Request: fold
Amino acid sequence: MHSTALAATSGARHWRPPSFSTRFYPVWQRNLLVWRKLAVASVLGNIADPLLYMLALGYGIGALIGEVGGMPYVAFIGTGMVCQSAMFTASFEGMYSAFSRMHVQRTWDAIINAPIALDDVMLAEWTWCATKALMSTIAILLVLMALGYGRTPFALAILPIGFLVGLVFGAFGLVMNALAPGYDFFTYFFTLVLTPMLLLSGVYFPVEQLPTWLAAAAQILPLKHAIDLARPLMLGRIPDAILLHVAVLAAYAFAAYYVALALTRRRLLK
Amino acid sequence: MHAVAIDERASATPILSVEGLVKRYGGQDVVRGLSFDIRRGECFALLGPNGAGKTTTLRCCLGLIDPDGGAITLCGEPVPKAAREARIRVGVVPQMDNLDPDFTVAENLRVYGRYFGIARSVIEARMPRLLEFAGLSGKGKQPIRTLSGGMKRRLTLARALVNDPDLLILDEPTTGLDPQARHLIWDGLRQLVAQGKTILLTTHFMDEAERLATRLAVIDHGTLIACDAPHTLLAEHVEPEVIEVYGDEAKAWAGRHGRHIATRLELAGETAFCYARDPKPLLDDLAGRPGVRYLHRPANLEDLFIKLTGRELRD
Reply:
């Protein structure tokens, strides 16, 4: 009895609210410094894949079907790719890169021996995931603009959306990281979360093309809400239901971060 | 006069005080009511077999895990409540090297200094001395992967000094190093004590404790078995002379003769360890006996450790 009660309190300690402190900054800065050393390779790695898809499908399939949703197919799929690459970049960072720092290199162990709390490290990793998502967003937007699309000041509003997508999927990735015994574990996330997300959120075709029940189900997907915000902006229009979309994304981001933080505390602070 | 009085009081307050520390995992007590104090300026060694609770105790002291009972005060701050504030005055050398492999030698020190909120100019001013201490002068731009194990360890030690700490905590600082590298680490630690730093280290190397520690605590199964200066503990617990007897006839000799002559005799494998206050009767008996060889030596910390924690293997 006694030990059960104690186990319960120590479990409850892991679920206390997150602390947000500016102490996260030197840890975030550490990640930025490492990234700067490998910046070119990193940016190319993050955007090569979405760029190939965008160009091949955009021009290949675009030639067959013309306009989709009131825009050329290249621009349609390009906007989807902006959000998709933000999603993949943040997920990768939250899983593989964070796992290297946490488990393989034990960088986090070194940091929490300094006067920095695990909450600060997690906040740094989370915002770093979103920072990298923002970098991908910028890179792909620049390519789209070079191709002649999205040359409107409204397109700038896609940048915070990319960051928000990064917060959502960075937090998802950090949940996986907290549970992972090894790198192989992350495959589940790709198969069970990212691939369905990619196919059902309207990256390649409008969600309305799906059967009614599936289109309705797709409404719960965070990537769908990001795309609903980004597409009109590319055309220089103000999206509908901005507050709803932002609220859904923010809710996913903060809820997932809270879970990731609690699970990480449970994993490391014992 | 006044300043001196305050100074004395400050040095009389322990830099780390642990009182009745308890830590449980899954209903099992790993640390059971452990108490000890570390005074300013001493080198205190925490000795214990694997699984004795050494690392758990250190993690509690740093506020990385919450104890289930007891009180800890580190650098005047209550832990875990103000652990972060306390860690500003502490340097840590972990059991496993966790230098940042993506950075150079100097970048490792620079980035780590930022975690303490130390201004760039202050870190740069300390850099040459830190590199010199690590034996890495002129190697600031070298990547970590080009360093040997001993160099990495020394850099980790230098990294723990980046905030000019009052207390240095080292978890098995020389495990996995070759003898040359270990001696360099020991020299470094002695220098630090000479400069007035306080050191807390865990180890299961007796020679390490013997060379460095002004005081040591032996812990086993999460409790303190003994705590004092090494020579005091030896005088208190172990007979001063040891004769190790080995060879084909050693066991038989121990049963028939040794057991009656030695103050205390222990068999470990094929060796008989004879402990005595006066070695002469043993030496006389052994002289010229066929089938046995022996080694006569003064008692050391290993004898103390074995006496206090037993001979059985731990995993």
